[in-house]
Amino acid sequence: MDLHKSPAPTARGPVPATELRCSDADRDRIADILRDALAEGRLTAEEHAERVEGVLNAKTVGELDLFVRDLPAAHARRTTAAYAPPGRPAPGTVPAEPDANVVAVFSSAMRKGRWRPGRRLHAYAIFGSVEIDLSEAIFEYQQVVIKAISVFGDVTIRVPENITLRGTGGAVLGNFEVSPLDSGEQNAPVVHVDGLAVLGNVEARPKRGKLVADILDRVSDKVDKALRRHLDH
C-alpha cells in the first residue's frame, strides 16, 4: 500500500476567473472600451465592428478580455483603484418619459445659459438644428440622459470639461459622435447621450474652459455680493 500517493483531484475545484461565464454587464464594459478606442483612433471602423460582434458572441470572461488586451484602457482599469464613473442608470432610476422636449422642424431650437436640465431630455432635429449647451447648466441630478434624434438635421450637445460623458447611438448615412469624458470626482454629473442620426448629425463633446465648479463658485460670489448690497441699503 502506497501511503505517499497523492489524493485524487476533486471535480469541484475552483474555476479560473477567465473561465467564468460573462454577464451582460461584462459585455457592456468591454463594448465601452472598444467604443472609446474607436473614438481615439486606436481602432478602425472595420476592426471595431469585428470586435463588437465577437463580444456579443463571447461566452466567458477570458474570451472578452481577448478583444481589449492590446488597448491601454483595459489595463488601466485593471491596475488602478481610482474612482470609476458610474455606468448607465439602472432601470427606474431615470424616468422613461422626458422631463422636456427640444424640437426643431425646418427651424432651430436651443437650450443654453443658466438652466436646469431634468433627468431625461429628448431632442429632435427634423430638417433643422438643435443646440443643447450644458456648460453653464445647474445640475440638480447626477445622471442626465439625452436622447437625440436627427433626420436631415443637426443635434449639437456641449458639456463642461469636468463631468463624465458617455454615448451609445448609431447613424444611417449620417454621423453620431460622442467624445467620452471621465471625471475623477465621485459626485460629478454624468451625461448619457443616446439616439440616432439618419442623413444627419449628432455630436456631443466638452466645451473648452467650462467647469462645473468654476460656474458654481461664480454664482455663489454673485449671490453673496447681491446680498451684501441689499443689507447695506
Question: Short summary of the structure?
Answer:
The protein is an alpha/beta fold and 233 residues long.
Structure explained in plain terms:
By secondary structure, the chain is α/β, with parallel strands linked by helices. Helix content is 28%, strand content 28%. It contains five helices and ten strands. The strands form two sheets. The chain has a five-stranded parallel sheet, with no helix packed on it. Helix 1 (24-40) packs antiparallel against helix 2 (45-57). The longest helix is centred in the C-terminal third of the chain and has 21 residues, at 212-232. The termini are far apart. Mean pLDDT is 80; it is low at 77-83 and 214-228.
- Strand neighbour order, sheet with most strands: 1-3-5-9-7
Distance between the termini: 104 Å
Beta-strand percent range: 25-35%
Class from secondary-structure proportions: alpha/beta
Taking pLDDT < 50 over at least 5 consecutive residues as the criterion, the unreliable ranges are 77-83, 214-228
The portion of residues assigned to helices is 25-40%
Q: Taking all residues together, what is the mean pLDDT?
A: 80
Q: Report the order of strands and helices.
A: HHHHEEEEEEEEEEH
Q: Overall 3D geometry?
A: globular
Q: Find the count of extended strands (DSSP E, 2+ residues).
A: 10
Q: Main sheet, how many strands, which sense, barrel? A: 5 strands, parallel
Number of helices: 5
Rg measurement, Å: 23 Å
Tag the structure with descriptive keywords.
DUF1707 domain-containing protein; five-stranded parallel β-sheet; 233 residues; 28% helix
